[in-house]
Amino acid sequence: MKTYLCQCGSKLFFHNDRCLNCGASVAMCPSCDELTALDAGSTYGVQCNRDSCTTTYLRCKNGVDHGICNRLVPTDPSGASQLCDYCRLTTVLPDLTVPGNIELWKRLERAKQRVLYAMERSGFPVEGGAPRLSFEFKADTNLPVMTGHEDGRITVNIREADSVAREIARVNFGEPQRTLVGHLRHELGHYFWDRLVRGQRNKEFHALFGDETNPDYSTAMQRYYDQGAPSNWRTEFVSAYASMHPWEDFAETFGAYHDMLTVLATANHFGVTNLELDTFDGLIRGYARVGVMANEFNRDMGLLDLVPEVFVPAVVPKLQFVHSLRVDLV
Ligand SMILES: [Zn+2]
Ligand SMILES: [Zn+2]
Ligand SMILES: [Zn+2]
Ligand SMILES: [Zn+2]
Residue 60 CA: which ligand is closest? Predict the structure, then answer.
């Protein structure tokens, strides 16, 4: 993610709601698409302090009530506080009276904000379209909550926001990484398959990923959990899980593509690379270079590899297919 500049010249980071240097209240202004200092404005509104920006806003209700969000919402004539465009997409929250749940929910919302913001700017719009996108963040009750996607609705078990539980799951499933942004990118892959591939690009999809009807999803899932991934999965797939079914292959590839794009946008912002982010070949080459460097940074610090995926020849055209789904930005 890029950084932003406060009126005082200090750096601001994506989730900041206050400048640590000058103390100004800051927020993400939807008109300017910038993190910006605020003027106090009227009794129930605030104004972005850029000269060109004249709209009066409110802070998102989740920011005011829980410090979870720094986005602004145009003022409603009623003066009622409202949720921002991203917070509104969450239709089911965990029980916030349970100790610890606010913190877990906050981690989920922040990961969601970061992923949606980058995705929208790379030509994958989250507003509008069919199916409608929504998020449900739920805790296990008598029945376990399965993280997944169905008809535009992305469900995440809030346990995934607990870093100890997530690491146990990561080790048990033998995954090179398991993160909230990773889960969200994967599930958004299923969402965008419904929105941009189903009934529109089926022929190309089948040629690259296989026929999603043969075997059907439940047969494929049963086989994967009985037998595991084929021993040669690395020559065909971006991850072991991608070998389960064409839909999972697409979601894993979609996630890997957005990992690549986000890391390279950051590398460009900090002057590490100077890439055209809409040229596919440049992305692949740039990622190989930045990925090697970033992995060494992580190894220097004793962390897991930042870029565990190796883009073998069979995976590259699948990534290119995801790249081709980008909606041209105006
Ligand atoms: Zn400042
Ligand atoms: Zn503004
Ligand atoms: Zn919000
Ligand atoms: Zn999936």
Answer: 3
